[in-house]
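Hi R.,

Here's the chain you asked about this morning:
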Amino acid sequence: MEFELFISGIGGQGVQLVGKTIALAALREGRHVMLSGEYGGHMRGGSTVVTVVIGPDPIRALPNLPFASTAIAMSHSYWEKVGPRLRPGSLILAEETIAGDLPDMETHQLVRVPAIALGTAAGNRLASSMAMMGAFSELTGAVSIEALQSAMQDQLP
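And the predicted structure, written out as tokens:
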């Protein structure tokens, strides 16, 4: 069975890095992966969405995934690019400071993650995306913490 994930936020929050790290972690665990990134014309501050599909067999999903059952929301800005594409009952991990600003959460399972607070406590607010990735691993089991750590070490100085 394929696992489909959207990750959304604002450029500069580490959204693309999280998607790539999750994809690399799944590859390390011997699974097949499709990764696709969408971002606006800004280097920082614009819309950014990553699509990750993980499966035990070669991926059948389209490069531009129309729907998913899981999402990570680092910002409520640009949520309109993701929210309508979620299946009813989807799991949404949202940064706790923006979770209340996400529309139409009545039909989904919303989990508030204190990612910014955790990143700040670790010494760098930008680590909030890594904290969110850990919460994703724990809540979904889609990839292991160990595989995520290994993939992060390869990508981050």
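The beta strands are 3-10, 32-39, 47-55, 68-73, 86-95, 109-113.

Let me know if you need anything else.
M.
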